[in-house]
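Contributing new records

If you add data, match the layout below exactly. Sequence lines come first and carry their own label; structure lines follow with theirs. Keep one chain per record. Anything else will be rejected by the validation script.
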Amino acid sequence: MKKLFKQIIKFGIVGGIAFVIDYSLLFILTDFFKIHYLISSIISFVVSFIFNYILSIKWVFDVNKKQTYKEIALFIGLSLIGLLINQIVLYITTDYLKVYYMISKIIATIIVMIWNFVTRKIFIED
């Protein structure tokens, strides 16, 4: 139980930093570079994904062995599903429910964060 609690804390720290990267980049690309919010969201998600992947493997889930192509593909596949969830939630809440896209991003992030933790715990951890 103590290990799980430590993992949740580490996951929260890594996720918090990844969220700041994702959220900030989304805002900058959309508001300053005038890129459509859904395109900006893909770019910001991928950048934060790379950061999150490295720290998740090295620090959160203590994956000590070298990653196989299968494990990397699994991590990427789970993250692509997370990206799809992110885009769907962002689109529905912004375009249909008329929520400001930066608030929609917070809602999407919470849902994807739960998806990421559960799936990484099940499929990635040693």
